[in-house]
Amino acid sequence: MNLKTVKTLALISFVLVLGIAVACIKHVIPIPPPPGPNVTLKHGLLLYLPFDGNIADSSGNHLTTTIINTVDSGGGLTTDAHGNANSAWGSNGTGSYIQVTNNGAIQYDSAFSLAFNVMVNANNLVRQSFVSSVNTINADGPGFAAGLSVPNSTDFCFGVDDTTAGCGNTNGGNLSNVADTANFIPQVGVWYHVVNVYQQGTIYVYVNGQLMGGKTNLLSHSAQDCPQATINIGYWWDKDKESLNGKIDEIRLYNRSLTIDEISALANN
User: Fold this and answer.
1) What share of the chain is helix, strand, coil (3-state, %, to 5)?
2) C-alpha to C-alpha distances, 24 to 20, 83, 245, nearest whole angstrom
3) Which pTM does this prediction carry?
4) H or E stretch covering 94
5) Assigned CATH for 31-267
6) How confident is the model over 6-53, as pLDDT tens digits?
7) So where are the chain's domains?
């Protein structure tokens, strides 16, 4: 082998190694969980709000649901993605929301999943919370938040606090672990199906069945689930309302990570 051949091979090897390194640096989305063997959408279901003419929980756990801030007349049942009346929750961003009180049935630790359909009326750098888990009075025990919650950004994000934060954490309701999905900027008037998964220290965000973003290496492998927190539909907390300006439907909360097959089934339903 002559010197020219050796130099050529060395150059090719260097380019290949560099290419792999660059690919690894750019690959920031976690590897998705493996496909599941079947679809079992009732297993582990903690909360289910289908909005079939009412705001009742249909999970079988008999969770109490209450409309808050009704005096502003900014929220109520509305049409869903198919135009069916009284089949989705709608709000105009002024603070009306649904609060779900935990009767002890909502419990999760190493894994949970939050799924919903959502459509926004506006996306203009005004933060909106689609679904959250926090004490709305004092922001104690923030567990998770899904919405347009990153300041000065119009893309969707899903934030989770693990158990290292502690249920006495006020911190203005801030969440320390946020999966920022820069490739998903909800367009006005368009319905999307979103699934947010927490699995042993890793966050995944799926939009219309496709993996869009995530975050790895959270400090703990257990998500924070505080008894004083309520599930809030279209709201964050009283001093930072981040109220939904749009519609939301088919809200599901599970005490496990959904499989790829189950995510696909929900997205195509």
Assistant:
1) 15, 35, 50
2) 6, 44, 38
3) 0.84
4) none
5) 2.60.120.200
6) 333 333 232 222 222 222 223 345 666 555 556 789 999 999 999 999
7) 1-29, 31-267
